[in-house]
Amino acid sequence: MYQRREITTQERIAQNQYCEQIKGLIAARPHYALVDTYGCQQNESDSEILRGWLVQCGYELTDDADRADLVAVNTCAVREHAEKRVLGNVGALAHNKAKNPELIVCVGGCMTQQPTVREKIKNSYRVVDLVFGPHEVWQFPELLLATMERRGRRGNRSRLIAAEPSEGVVAEGLPRQRDGRVKAWLSIMNGCDNFCSYCVVPYVRGRERSRRPADVIAEARELIAAGYKDITLLGQNVNSYGKGLDEGVDFPDLLASIDAIPGDYILRFMTSHPKDATEKLFRVMADSEHCAHHIHLPLQSGSDRILKEMNRHYDRAKYLEKAALARQYMPDLVLTTDIIVGFPGETEVDFQDTLSLVEQVRFDAMFTFIFSPRPGTPAAGMPDPVTRAEKQVWFDELLDAANRISGEKHAAYVGRTFRVLVDGETGQTPYNLSARTKGGRLVHLAGDPSLVGRFMDVKITDSATWALFGELA
Ligand code: SAH
Ligand code: SF4
Q: Which pLDDT band holds residue 1 (cuts at 50, 70, 90)?
């Protein structure tokens, strides 16, 4: 039976003590650590905590694997392609270890929660010293110290395979090394209860549990006070935020409370399951001062039959109704989506249903994937007679439609002026800066690097499929 469990202050303090012990062990010379992240924003957020721990343990961070004394790979299990890439890169670390036998290789993230992958790493990836799961990020120092002590005692061949399914954990007050100074992730919940039939997330990330609103709001305040200008609330399905808490706060309530914090910043969130996106949410977004008028609302398929097989709990009509309602509240809404092509049993008719819905809704951007069977999910056991080559033809057709529509949508920005947030340098000329509109569209422009972190008025001069180009107005 699933139990929500908040990590106690004592447990957290114990981790701080493990950090001090590790610091002592590596004090003789500078030690460097690299954290390599795959997959979604939730993983990026977890990697910020891993970096926070590593810094607290006395490591300096590096991007250079050749220099690293510790490499932590934060893995993704959503599609097989990512898994193969991760394992290839982990295997390649054997070269680094041959040069530096002291190198500690840690593998964390969603892949480690799959028994088959854990076995594979155990048997075939001897380079790995520590395997830990997404539920164990809060106790990384303890696991790292145990790994170091084992190696000390028994040489390089003793490894620690953790990754326990302790799925109800909520941990506050962990250290964090954020990636940038302008944009910040703010994780509001973890796990997923939806069990879409193709998806591995509920199995590897565990049951859905929300952070307490007071903790989320306090973190948002800290971020705004620290000067962050673009805050994204993260969860696998943010619209079911608050379930299981006694505060009686739902996601629109949380959004409104954060929006009430004064300051010049943009508030974003992802991801929204269409079945749980409510009129209340659209109203709060429309009325808010800071909320981006952007919803990422994964459609997955336009066929009612396939949506049912996917266990999505909405149909075409319902999706169209939600999209129309959201646009009614926010006529300038940017609507983006995810679509899976080639779900088991999908036919040409089903695919045409997806295509026609795409033409009807006209998404600003679409992320398209070919179905990837994930071990342990219901869809992996369904008959799947369509060949990969046939699926690729559908995929290419869908991608053409996606590119055409977003190109057309982007073209409509040309000649207009928008207030954008300059969020980074591109390292390219002449468009050396990147920026985002409030709706989240990428804008390239030329300007002084000191503009990073500032809101500027920019006139859009040109457009492409994936980006806009502009000049300071
Ligand atoms: N919680 C989010 C994101 C889940 S994973 C959501 O519900 O939208 C991100 C996307 O990956 C999904 O929206 C889906 O389009 C895609 N995806 C998930 N599992 C997949 C699979 N087995 N094969 C192909 N694409 C998949
Ligand atoms: Fe996966 Fe569905 Fe949960 Fe998204 S809502 S994480 S697709 S199970």
A: low
Give pLDDT tens digits for 62-105. 999 999 999 999 999 999 988 899 999 999 999 999 999 999 99
Which pLDDT score is estimated for 153? 65
Q: Which fold has domain 5-162?
A: Rossmann fold (3.40.50)
Counting atoms of ligand 2 from 1, which one is nearest the CA of 192?
3
Surface-to-core class of residue 3, CB atoms within 10 Å of its CB (0-12 exposed, 13-18 middle, 19+ buried):
exposed
The size of the chain, in residues, is 473
Average pLDDT in the chain = 94
Please give the number of the atom of ligand 1 that sits closest to the Cα of 374. Answer: 22
CATH number for the domain formed by residue range(s) 180-292: 3.30.750.210
Maximum CA extent, the chain: 68
Domain range 296-411, CATH architecture: 2-Layer Sandwich (3.30)
The answer to whether 160 and 147 have CB atoms below 8 angstroms apart is yes
Provide the residue ranges of all domains of the chain, joining segments of one domain with +: 5-162, 180-292, 296-411, 417-472
Per-residue pLDDT tens digits for 297-349: 999 999 999 999 999 999 999 999 999 999 999 999 999 999 999 999 999 99
- Return the exposure string of 369-398: e unless at least 16 CB atoms fall within 10 Å of the residue's CB, then b: bbbbbbeebbbbeeebebeeeebeebbeeb
| Token digits of residue 21 | 């012990």
% of the chain beyond a pLDDT of 90: 90
Equal CATH topology for 180-292 and 296-411: yes
The residue whose CA is least distant from atom 2 of ligand 2 is 196
CATH number of 417-472: 2.40.50.140
* Closest-lying ligand 1 atom to the alpha carbon of residue 194: 7
Answering whether pTM is above 0.90, one says yes
- Parallel/antiparallel/unpaired status of strands 209-210 and 442-445: unpaired
pLDDT of residue 161: 83
Ligand 2 pocket test, candidate residues 42, 113, 194, 241, most atoms within 8 A of CB: 194
Q: Which residues line ligand 1 (CB under 6 A)?
A: 78-79, 198-199, 201, 236-237, 271, 273, 298, 300, 338, 340, 369, 371-372, 374
CA of 392 to the centre of ligand 2 (A): 23
Q: 192 in ligand 2 pocket by Cβ < 6 Å?
A: yes
